[in-house]
Amino acid sequence: MIREATSFTVADYCAGMSRNEIIVNRNYQRSDKVWPPVARSYLIETILKGFPIPKLCLYQVTDVRSRTTYKEIVDGQQRSTAIYDYYNDQFKTSKRVETEELQNKKYSELDDEYKQKFLEYSINVDLFLSATPAEVVEVFRRMNSYTVPLNAEENRHASYQGHFKWFINSIADKLERIFLDTHIFGEKQLVRMADNKLLTELCDSFWNGIRTTNKAILDAAYRQHDDAFTEERVFSKRLLGAFDLIRQMESIHDTTLMKPFMVYSLVQAITHTVKPIRAFQGIFRLNRARRINIESALANLSMLSQVAESDDDGHSRFADFIEASQEKTNVRENREIRFEWFCKALTSETVQ
């Protein structure tokens, strides 16, 4: 068997599909479920912005009777179909893509600059030559044997292609710079999707209140909102607004408050203060939305950061907050304690 690394422009690849020189072989299809519009749109936006997509794998077959060759898509059928359908004006990009001139556009409606970018985009391909079907299967078995096991977040990202998955993905993209600049996450943590976990836990709390979460609970969020996610606009506004405020609070960026478990509680407190959340009212009741005074909030948060990092016994009035910030940090009781203290910090002139 020979493996040849090659590439096609989108124009050449789609022309090959039109002539049935590149075809889908359903025997290799792992799922009959078609990507939803939001997933297809994300792929097209990625191409139009010039970012890389995973390489495709094709298997070249020779028909001795007709003396012709054709290529079967072994890996990348959903990507291939999405690209081909967009090439043929079969769907529009989402109204919510970040680049305004790419919003809600079919290929034919793009500016010429973007049409050219799309057609000239290079698709990287592994082409298997002189191979038997059994050898192709063996290739993927061996490839998977050397793959680093996926963590829970990566498994969820791979398993679901619905509305909630792509919402979390989009918010994570928008917040990447804030995560890095505020030191909430490092590059390695973002690669392993720690940010997706935090965002999913926050969304779960908006629905179900503050609780201890686990893999089953977070998996359920993706599963239950795979086909429809009606709170997208509300949750997007809450998350982006809260993290933007954290971005402005530079004096706490290098403190213990930027640990992900602390940020979980701080984001909840910020968004509850700005627009009260029913599921949180039993912990900290707010009768109306409040405007956060950043100056006094920062003074209070800095105080909480100092006591959380201190071994001084003189902070007895903060004892529950200190304990909740040092042990069992992701269980419900301690999450509620931190949330309550952060709400006090954001709504009072001084922390009591």
What do you see in this structure?
- This protein is α/β, with parallel strands linked by helices and 352 residues long.
- The protein folds into two domains: 2-147, Alpha-Beta Complex (Conserved hypothetical protein from pyrococcus furiosus pfu- 392566-001, ParB domain); 153-347, no CATH class.
- Helix content is 51%, strand content 10%.
- The chain has 15 helices and five strands.
- The chain has helices spanning 10-18, 37-48, 77-87, 112-120, 133-145, 152-159, 163-181, 187-191, 194-208, 215-224, 232-248, 260-274, 294-309, 319-324, 332-347, and strands at 2-9, 22-24, 56-63, 68-75, 122-129.
- A five-stranded mixed sheet has the order 1-5-3-4-2.
- Helix 13 runs antiparallel to helix 15.
- It is elongated.
Give the helices and strands, then pairings.
Elements: E1 2-9, H1 10-18, E2 22-24, H2 37-48, E3 56-63, E4 68-75, H3 77-87, H4 112-120, E5 122-129, H5 133-145, H6 152-159, H7 163-181, H8 187-191, H9 194-208, H10 215-224, H11 232-248, H12 260-274, H13 294-309, H14 319-324, H15 332-347
Parallel strand pairs: 2-4, 3-5
Antiparallel strand pairs: 1-5, 3-4
Helix pairs in contact: 1-3, 2-3, 7-9, 7-11, 9-12, 11-12, 12-15, 13-15
